Amino acid sequence: MVTLLYFASLRESLSCAREQVPLSSASSTVSNLIEQLRSRGDRWSEAFAPGRNFRVAVNQQMADAATPVKPGDEVAFFPPVTGG
Amino acid sequence: MPIVRVQEADFDVGRELEVLTGGRTDVGALASFVGLVRGANDGRGVSSMTLEHYPGMTEKALDDICREAASRWNVLETLVIHRVGPLKPGDRIVLVGVTSAHRGESFAACEFIMDFLKTRAPFWKKESTPEGERWVDARASDDVAANRWKG
């Protein structure tokens, strides 16, 4: 299982702040995880559609599509940041 | 060691900066930046704002940014305090303070920390306007500002 976190506008459009999901394979990447979420359809395929501008962090470090994801990891999805 | 805090409460700029200089005689320069909530953004009035963050990662990202600044410039201390939760126009949002022996280092490092905070630290602003609530979009000009420190 991995813990998924969603922040800001993404959390609102998905109506989900946090969930636990099983990994589809032992050698998963962020890209596989996004595919898994897209396959849920509706707002999920829309939020993670190709070209949508979102960021990913794995274990609180900025990540990209190729970053490996293993059981126990914390993966966060969020829009570009707007602090300061 | 960078001083990094993320908090709902307001901060006293004078008292916080005093921590960087109090009791030392090696500090020749203290540069600081205070960010405030504007009452208008992109042509619309803003009556209030809520700042969200990613507890844990945000503090880590701010700490990394301060360490990166300290590796680029000869600075003595760095400090970042960033507020979250509900804020009103005129409220303080962020304080950055940097000390060094001479002014050049603290000026540059202070600006660097703000530019990287704007593009790397996981904070998100939601504004309340007369037309309703809206999430603030990231600005391309912030990416440009951060990119000029490359190389």
Automatic annotation (TrEMBL), chain A:
<dbReference type="InterPro" id="IPR016155">
    <property type="entry name" value="Mopterin_synth/thiamin_S_b"/>
</dbReference>
<dbReference type="GO" id="GO:0006777">
    <property type="term" value="P:Mo-molybdopterin cofactor biosynthetic process"/>
</dbReference>
<dbReference type="GO" id="GO:0000166">
    <property type="term" value="F:nucleotide binding"/>
</dbReference>
<dbReference type="InterPro" id="IPR003749">
    <property type="entry name" value="ThiS/MoaD-like"/>
</dbReference>
<dbReference type="GO" id="GO:1990133">
    <property type="term" value="C:molybdopterin adenylyltransferase complex"/>
</dbReference>
<protein>
    <recommendedName>
        <fullName>Molybdopterin synthase sulfur carrier subunit</fullName>
    </recommendedName>
</protein>
<comment type="similarity">
    <text>Belongs to the MoaD family.</text>
</comment>
<dbReference type="Pfam" id="PF02597">
    <property type="entry name" value="ThiS"/>
</dbReference>
<dbReference type="InterPro" id="IPR044672">
    <property type="entry name" value="MOCS2A"/>
</dbReference>
<keyword id="KW-0547">Nucleotide-binding</keyword>
<dbReference type="InterPro" id="IPR012675">
    <property type="entry name" value="Beta-grasp_dom_sf"/>
</dbReference>
TrEMBL record, chain B:
<keyword id="KW-0808">Transferase</keyword>
<keyword id="KW-0501">Molybdenum cofactor biosynthesis</keyword>
<dbReference type="GO" id="GO:0006777">
    <property type="term" value="P:Mo-molybdopterin cofactor biosynthetic process"/>
</dbReference>
<dbReference type="Pfam" id="PF02391">
    <property type="entry name" value="MoaE"/>
</dbReference>
<dbReference type="InterPro" id="IPR003448">
    <property type="entry name" value="Mopterin_biosynth_MoaE"/>
</dbReference>
<comment type="subunit">
    <text>Heterotetramer of 2 MoaD subunits and 2 MoaE subunits. Also stable as homodimer. The enzyme changes between these two forms during catalysis.</text>
</comment>
<comment type="pathway">
    <text>Cofactor biosynthesis; molybdopterin biosynthesis.</text>
</comment>
<comment type="similarity">
    <text>Belongs to the MoaE family.</text>
</comment>
<dbReference type="InterPro" id="IPR036563">
    <property type="entry name" value="MoaE_sf"/>
</dbReference>
<dbReference type="GO" id="GO:0030366">
    <property type="term" value="F:molybdopterin synthase activity"/>
</dbReference>
<protein>
    <recommendedName>
        <fullName>Molybdopterin synthase catalytic subunit</fullName>
        <ecNumber>2.8.1.12</ecNumber>
    </recommendedName>
</protein>
